[in-house]
Every structure is written in C-alpha cells, then in structure tokens.
Amino acid sequence: MLEVRLVGGPHLCSGRVEVLHGETWHTVCDADFDQQDAEVVCRELGCGLPVEVLGGAVFGRGEGQVWSEELQCRGNESQIHSCPTSPSPKHNCSHDSDVGLVCAGSVRLVDGGSPCAGRVELLHRGQWGTVCGDNWDMRDAAVVCRELGCGEAVDALSDAYVGPGSGPIWMDDVECSGSESTLKHCRSAGWGKHNCGHSKDAGVICSEYRLVGGSRCSGRVEVLHGETWYTVCDADFDQQDAEVVCRELGCGLPVEVLGGAAFGRGEGQMWSEELQCRGNESQIHSCPTSSSLKHNCSHDSDVGLVCAGSVRLVDGGSRCAGRVEVLHIGQWGTVCGDNWDMRDAAVVCRELGCGEAVDALTDAHFGPGSGPIWMNDVECSGSESTLKHCKSFKWGKNDCDQSTYAGVICSGVRLVGDSHCSGRVEVLHGETWYTVCDADFDQQDAEVVCRELGCGLPVEVLGGAAFGRGEGQVWSEELQCRGNESQIYSCPTSSSLKHYCSHDSDVGLVCAGSVKLVDGGSRCAGRVEVLHRGQWGTVCGDNWDMRDAAVVCRELGCGEAVDALSDAYFGPGPGPIWMDDVECSGSESTLKNCSSSGWKKHNCSHSKDAGVICSGVRLVGGSHCSGRVEVLHGETWYTVCDADFDQQDAEVVCRELGCGLPVEVLGGAAFGRGEGQVWSEELQCRGNESQIHSCPTSPSLKQNCTHDSDVGLVCAGHRKSRLTGGPHQCSGRVEAFHEESWYTVCDADFDQQDAKVVCRKLGCGLPVEVLGGAAFGRGEGQVWKVELQCRGSESELSVCPTSPSLKQNCDHDRDVGLICSGHTGARLVNGSDSCSGRVELQYLSSSLALHEGRVRLSGGMECEGEVEVYFMQDWRRVLLDSWSGSVASVVCRQLGCGSVFSFSSSSPSSPEHSHMCVTSFNCSGSEAHLVNCSSAQAVNCSSREQLSITCSVHSSIRLVGSGGDCAGRLEVFHRGSWGTVCDDLWGIEDAQVVCRQLQCGVALSALVPAQFGPGTGPIWLNEVDCEGNETSLWNCRFQLCGENECEHREDVGVVCSEYKEFRLTEGCEGNLEVFYNGSWGNVCNNGITEDTVSLICQELNCGGTGTESPAEARVESAPNWLDNLKCRKHDSTLWQCPSSPWGQNTCDNHKEVARITCSGKKENLKCFSFPNQRQSSVHLPLRVWGGKGSCSGNLEVYHNTEWGSVCDDLWDIRDAQVVCRQLGCGPALSANGSSVPGAGSGTVWLNRVKCRGNEIHMWDCPHSLKNHTDCSHSQHAGVTCTVPPTGSTTVTPPQFTSPAVPAIYAVSLLVLGVLFLLALVLLIVLVYQNRVLRRVLSKRRRTTLTEAIYEEIDQRLITKKLAKKGSILSQAQHSGYEDVDEGHLSGFGTEEIPANYDVMSAGQMPENVIDYDDVISVPKTEGQTV
Fold first, then answer.
1. pTM of the model as a whole
2. Which string of b and e fits 841-850 if b means at least 16 CB within 10 Å?
C-alpha cells in the first residue's frame, strides 16, 4: 500500500512528491506523473485541486531512491494506492527530475485583496466553508499564515470583517496552540458543529514580508511572490520601503536598514522588482514596483532591516526590564496585569532577546502607563514567538485600571549548556550575546549573575570553557561588580586586560538553583521551596499534581517524578508561601514558568505545603520501566556495573519508579553503553527499601568495570492504561486504571491526543487509528465517566486533565479501541534452531497496510463500497458467497461504521485486482476484526461477483438547527449526501431510537413538521416505523422516499433529554438556569469561581467578566441541576466544566442559587434566514395589563423605546397559546380581540401574527413589525390564560387542545364539528386520489394544494400523531418555566436563537431594555397612562 506526501514546499499542499513503499519514501520521476495523478494526490492530502505539476526538482532534489513504477491514475480515485501502476520506462531517472506539485490548499483567504489576507475558508469533503470567529485569536491566525506560507500573522479578525461567507460553517471554537502545521489539526467543536452565523466569520491578515536570521522584528528582508520567497537587493530598498515592512509586521518604526547581507546570505532567487513605497502604505503589496536596475545583484547584497519591535519594556532602567507596552495599529499601549505570570513574561523576554524571565510584576510596579490598555487576561503557553500570539481578550477590551499594569524583568545574562542555574556565562549587549573571559569574572560577579537569574548562591566558577566553547564574540569589558547589585547591567565595567581571550577561556558558573526539596532525606525528595527576591518560601499544595512534580524533578536533575504530595507531608515550612494554584503543562524548564495565582497570592497555610519525591535512579534506552540503570550522585548520573547489581537492588529500583516487580536483570550493556563515569559503589539493598538512596553501599570490587558491563533492568510496569482484546499488545480496547479498578473509556471522550499518551506509555509508538463502537469487543465493569483532555505530551493518562463526560449514559457499545504503530510480533531469523538467530520485530506502519486482516472499502466513501482485505501481503477483493452477510457485519464493525445497512454484488474486478480474490471467511458476525474469522482462502477472481456493502455509520444521522447535538431537524447520510426524513407516520417511538443511537438520552417529543426549519437537499426516508427498542434508525422499517412524495415543510425534528442549554433570567444578569432532561433548573452557587462567571458571560455575549452572588430560586419547586460548578481557564464552553453529577447537590433554594451579573449587554437585533425568506428577530419585551390577575389582559410589546399594541388581524387561540406559555401561565382560554376593554392609545407595533401554537416565544412566529397605522385601537389583541397551580413541579409539553368555551356554544360547536368531519373525510379521499394519480404519472409534478388545504392536512396529521403516539411526559404544568416537548426549542427553526424577553412594569420607560425570558403582567390602575 502506498502513502504520499509533499516535501520542501511552503505549506502542506505543495512540494516534492514522495510515495511510501514498504518502509521507504521514494521520489517520483516527472516523466511518470501527470494531471490525473496530481488530482488523486491533492484529494488524498485533503487539499484542493492541482494548480501546477512542476518537473526538474523545483522543490529540491530528494534523497534515497526514485520510484521505479509509473502511476496510471484515472483521476477519480480517493487514494494513491488505488491507482494502477506499471514499470516505469524511465529507468535512469535521477533526482534532477523529481516531480513537484502545487495543490490549491485546504485553507484559503478570500476577499481581502491578496492571497495572504481575507476571510478564512476551509476545504472539507470537497466543499469550501467558513470558520466561526468565536474565540478566534492570534494563535489561530498564526497557524493559518504558516500553512499558507504567508509570513507572520498581523491580525486575527472576526465578525465578518471582510464580509460574510457562504456555504457551511466548518469549524467553531477553534483553539490552536500555535504550533500546528494546519488549521485542521487545531481543537474545535467538530466538523460542522457550531452555534454561529456567517456574521461572525473569522478573518486573517498575514504579512507578505518576513525578516529572517534575526528576531521577529529584525533580519534579512524576504518578500513572497506566488509560492516563493525572494530576497531583496539592498540597492532597491530605502527608508520608505522599510517603514511599510515594519508597519506590516506590527514592529514599530524602522531603526536601521543594513546592506551587504548583514543577516547572512539568503537562498533561492533575488527579487527582480524595485519597491517604490511612499511610506504610508499599510502593506507591502500596495506599493508600486518597477523593474530593478540591478540585474546582477547577488546574495552578497541581500538587504537587512532592524525594526523597533512590537513590544517594549519602559521605565525599568534598561531595555530588558520595565512596564510592558505593545504596539497595535500604530499606537503604543499597556497590558493589564490580571493573571499575568511567568509564562507571559517568558514570551516577552524571548521576543526582546533578553534572556530568561526573572520576574513577572503587576500593580504598576514600574509606574502607570499612558494610552490604551491593549491586552487583558493574557494567557501564554510560554512557547509563543510574540506576545501578540498569546490568548487574550480582544484588542482594547478590558476591565482594568492604571494600577494593575504588567511589568517584566528579564535577565541581561544567561547560563548556556546545562540547566537554568548552571552553564557558560553570556551577557547581552545591544542585540548580541557575548561570552565572558574567565580572567574577567570573579566571585562578586558570580553572586550578581546568580541573583539576577533567580538562582541561589554561586557554587562554583569554572574556567577553561567547562561548559563548552561559545560562538560569536568574547566580551571586551571586565565586570567589576561589588556583589550586591540586583542585575548585571548595574555593575561597573572597564576595558578588559585580556584582549586576546578566546572561546577556550569562556567562563562557566554553577548556582545553587531556585528550587529545592528539603526535609525528605535527600536532595531529590522533600518539601518544595522556591527562591524569590532573595528569600526561600514554600508552595501551596492546592491542585498540586504529577505534572507540577515532573517540572520540579527535571529542574533539579532528579529523574522521574515518583509522587506529588500535599498537606505538609514533609512537615510545614517557614517563610512566605510564594506560589498557589500552580498549574504546569509539564514541559516547563523551571517551576517559576508555570501558571499560578501570582507571587505570594494565596489562600493557603503551611499545613498544605507541597512536596515531591523524585527518583534518584533512572532507566535509559528502553521505556520508563526498562533500560540501562543510572543513579544520581551529587549533580552527576552514573551507570552501574552488572557485577554490583542483584535482584534485591532491582526490586528497589522498580519500586521507586512505580514500575511493579523486576522481570529481568540484564548485563553486558544490553540497553547500550552509557557515557560518563561508572559508579564506584556496590549497592547492598535488602529489597524492602522505598528508594535507592536508602540502600547501604560499599566500595565496588570491580574497579576496572567499563561501560561494556553497564547493567540493564526490565520491570513489570504499573500501568495506568492498557489495550485488551486486540490481536497484539499494541492494539485493543482502551482501559484505564482508576480507584483500584479497570474502566473502559467512551469513544466520545477519547481523541488523537489521548491516543498519543496511551501509545507512548505502552512503548507502542504513535497512534495509527482510534476505533469507536466497541471495535475490540464490549468490555466489562464500569465505563469511565470522564472526558480525557490530554494535550498529547503527558507521560500517562493519569496526569491528563479531565472533565465530566458529555455522554453520561455511554455504555459498553461505545468502548473505544486503539491501534498503535508499535511492534506487533518478533521472530529469530537465520539461527541454528527456532530459539536462536537475528532478532526481527514486525511493526505497523501509519498506512495500516502491514497487518494482515486490515479491511477497506474502495470507491471513495468511508463506509460504503467494495470490500478489500489485506491478505497474503496484498490488497484483494472479497467474493460474494454464503458468508457475505456475516462478513459484512464484521467489516462494518472493524471500520467503526456501525451495522450493516445493505450488501450486494458488484461488477468483476478491475484489471489491477483481477489476479486473486479472497473467499470463504467463516465468520459468525460477532467478531471485532476480520482476522478473527477462519478459513479464508485466495482464489482466482475470474468473472465472479464481488462483495459490496453499505454500513450504517454511527455518524450517519444527526440533529441540526438547534445549536446542540441532541435536538434539531433529523438528517440521515445516504449515498454520499445528507438528507431529511419525512414526518409521515413519525412518532415518539421513532424519536426514542434516534436519541438512543445518538447517545442523547430519551426522546422528549416527536415534533411537528419543520420545527427546526425546512431542510435542503434530498428527502431520504419516509414512513419510518420503529418499535422503539432498536439500537439504530436503520434497524427500523422505513421506505426510501420516492420522487415528489414529501416536501421539506414535512421534515421531522427531535428533542432528546440530553439537550442542554443555559440562560440568565434577566438577559445579561439574573439567576443562572440550565435546561436539562426536559426542564429548566437552578445552579447552586457552591464553588463558582471568577473563571466560571467569565465563561458564562462570554458564551452569552454579555461581556468578558461578571460577578456572582447567592439568590433565591425563581420557582421554588424547580430542580437544582448543578452544584460545585468550577470552570477552568482552558474550558471553552460551560458543558466542559467539572461539576457534581446532574441533580446531586447540597444547596438551599431559598438562599444558595447562583445569580450572575455580567459586565456587558446583549445586542437586541439578530437576523435569521430560511431559503425563501429573511427577517430580523427582535427581542421584544412584552406585557399584559387591564385583566384579572397576572395571566390575562391586553397584550403590548416594547419597541423603539415605546410600548405599543398588537393588532388582532389573524389573532387566534394558537397565538394566545404562545403568549400564555411565555408568560409562565397555563393554557390559553381565549384569544381576545376587537373589543378588548380598556384598549390603549399609541402605536400598534405588531400585526399579522401567525403562530402554529407550539412556539416557545412569540418572536418565533411569523409577524409584521412596524408602525401599523391601518389598525385601530378597537382591534387590539389580548389573551386570557389559566393560572398555574402553586408548587407544580412537572413539565408539560405544549398541547394542541381546544380552549375552554362557554356551554351555550356547545350546540353550535357540535354542528360545526360534524361539518368539519365531513369536509375532512372528503379531503382525505381527494388526497388519496391525488397520491394514486401521482404514482401513475411519476414524471409529472403534482398539483400544489392550496395553503388552506395544507393547513388542514397538517392539523389532521398532528391529530393523528398525537392520538397514535402520545407523549412520554406528564401533563402537569411546571410553574414559572417554559413548556417543553413539542414546543420546546421551536424557535430554533432559525440559525440564530433569540435569547430572552424583558421584564417591565406598565409605564416604565427605561433607557436600556433588559432582556428577560419571563414576562409579568401589571394590572392597569386608575389614572395610569400608557
């Protein structure tokens, strides 16, 4: 099987073509590659169409072999391995003829005026779509610019800055780390999953210039033209050009233009144009150009440029210390100190080329700044190249004041070559780092350097290039520090007497370190203490975990972290508590670079001091639990002689590393020869010690032991994860060890990053495939109720962040499986017998092709096509035989494609498969893999029919239109496209199956047609008839919908109990309430943090911050759904935040319900569209007045700062039902109109309201909103609703019941009912005749029924369904909350969902209308004006 890649190009979709054959990558001869081959390669890589096929090694000469085959693709294949090949006629083709390819790319920027600016669009499944701008920031923009080869990201734009796009919105809530190679690799809500409109489309501006060889704002100038970067001749570049380049890069004003290749000679071509910028352009592509006069300009004349930079430190006494200021849109501004920490400071120091971050300061330490506050709540990972790429609020948006500006102290000195606190001394002068001559450096200088770096006292000054010879220049000054200075730049200097000092005399320094472990019996175990501002202090143990411990152990050079301890395990410490709420990623070089609450900011005592136990021993050259034994003595790691190491020593080592019992002690350097010294001691452990440093030692008897005798050890390993049920140790069902039990993991809670951690921990290489749907069989015991959120770099699953699972009812049918690339088997070759010989390991490649029994479906569809199996080292078609039904079941399961939808015969093999096929797989149908079936054999294909199958992939149904996965219009995937389901015969049993298949709980309703808006495309299914206990919709009886049988106004929708939503009851303030399992309920205020409040406000578009306070529940009987809700900084939605299980709480409804007040206000106008209409949805405050009680009276709406009436044209009982529901009242008794007593004066705002009756808000109904002068005040609409009983707790679905009427109308109603029944019977006969006629004349379009007839049919169908199917909910009203079931979410027929109504008393005229979901009525009092 072949894989393909493009190498050496500017982005993922261009470069030299290379194919993987066996284990080796081969280049391809340009004579053997054409346009059809190019189309397949671009398609397989997920790129667009081929742009250009380039011969002659345009992307550089490759290495290794040139492929000896000629591709003969037809152009419609989905992968290159499906293309036929033949021996190449170009046997002497060399790397000078390596073919290159440029594909259109899977990401593009459009409508921005250049290829490097515009709206972001992604290619997915052959269709271009946009990206939602929610949470879109500079890290995301940086990935796009890098993928496009467009230089630095200049700006990250949202809110459709360059205009709204069209087509699907492919990605939402994008969260890139900034290091991804393609936007598709960033975290997001999932393909096509969003709660966004095109009005929020993301955009990016990238720079078409870059500076190379210096820093981000200095270097050799290179310009992008087409797909290629060109250097620029110094004769063609002046000050005006420099101003534009610096401005485009966001780097301030130009400092210096340097000719003569000052930043090194470039490669490739010189630009043949001369720039003629005026200096005021915003981007270089706007500058005029002319042909260069310097046609013979060479790379010796490459121009360089130094810009001022986009970040600076001011008022700190040097360029490497001071208040942080950033340059944005031409203006310098400050950074708010909220949450400012050492990781943020590290990015600033790196960007400025100022060495290590020494301190991260807040509270305007360097004085208040001026100008705008550009950034707030900055959150850097620490690896960003510029502060602008860190996550933060939008530019200029903050709640900060001048007293909280951020500051940084960077070190003007660094230690290179060992650790943070030891190495070769280098000092920063200007923009350049210099080494220091050992004759010019003494103990006083060493004290200042160690102090500046935040390390302890100097331990040793080492001359003679002890840490290696440096590069560049040796400093020509002699330091004359007194020893009490805080930074090296404060020390006096004089000219060095050692003018001929070379790098052989570079001075080195060892400082004591800025972290230590005390009272633990060794330097690698004990209470954690850190040095800050010259004083040692402790670390609070709150949230202290193994990732934090790993950083401490690495910083101390103490091997692996064995345990992370809290609660003053090693005794309480003295001094200040420097750090609290420490949160390390695990990759930091020092504990100070981890996120925390800030220096000395804590709510902790010394009784919680953190501790760490590191291992004084390590195993090298194998895995964590196997390898060469090395022990730490002092600062040095030593190997151990095999003659000095026995079984008791092995037991202690394995125990200390947490690796179980020893399996084997191996001598003779079994894991390779070590370096450095061999330990001169003999271990004499008894076997019961907890750590190796507790074992007695004696001088070794093997004084001449060499590295050829280095001892190795294999421990059993105490694994926190395992793979079971697979054909080998590196594949199987994923199980995690938790609380002394093994748990399976739900496939919805496990992704590629989690898989990387499992494969690495098991020593199994990289993940090849993550398989859902219990691909390796159903497990036993419990399913782990957490969602793993690994970043991929963790050492094991137990240190990954987690949050409560989104699929609380996940069962063993969803157990996740995993295949890693590690070795699958071993053998001995060319030995004298079966137990000797050369060791060979079999590995899986990432192409999956090297494992017998792998299956695939040809034809371009993931879960549909002709079955091919990898059998006898080749891909072969499977013949149709008596076992085909069982084989199809296994294949669908193995591919993670659900169950079999259908199987059939296909035409005989194409020529490339004509020689051999496979038959007689003896499967029962329950196997997890085809390899588990027996008796397969290879036969000649001849002209026999072959097996083709269609699987019902789990993702082949979806609910769309609600913003969530568990409610919406039902769509099914069939024949390569999504289509809808007709509502004929649809009922609650059918909805139950859909909810079960989607793992969304139980069905709350079987909705009326087009509840979530009409769909588009084909209508695939009709007359679905489920029993209700099926596991998949495809297991139900149904008919494929024939032509013209249904219309999209009959599309069915479903709401499941796992649908969740939340709100604040008064718009951007009020009680926090969540909708779950069919009803609204409260959230307790226990544990709610500032991060939780901020996330809620951001998700509701109510600003970035807010406050929380305890309150009383609005409805006393409402359930308390959530307690102990605590969001973390990396959570992007409320449902990712940890909390107690649903319904479990310890709070009091009278005083402990969460109330939140956000800093912002919602926009009052949202627009939505259907295919045939576009209208705006206004959040109209609403009230009733002048009636009896709170549930009857005249209806008024608030619009344009004025209360106005609703005209009663078309006003009927269905409109009244919606109003009563919104009021929180019971069912409507009547829809009053025309002669409503006390009709008011003023504007008539609404007319022609036409509700179906099941909408949840009146704005969901069609209506006309304007000043209706054609409607008099004698035509005002009103309502009379029933008053709900006090204390009702049951949610009632909207009912299609007739209103109560006076008894005197009974006879009239009876007569009308009989007439209506006769008309209905006649109508049914007409409809039946029409359907018969339509089927006979299938080529003719049916005659459209009048709207009146359509409404009658709708009523008949609704009545039939309610009678046939019923509702699974109680009929009692839930006082104070919106009705659920058929009515809930009816407003989601639009793409954007209106949020809340406003609460207002009659007569109030507020300046700012507050959104509110519930509306109160106010009786009209005498003399009151409206």
1. 0.38
2. eebbeebbbb
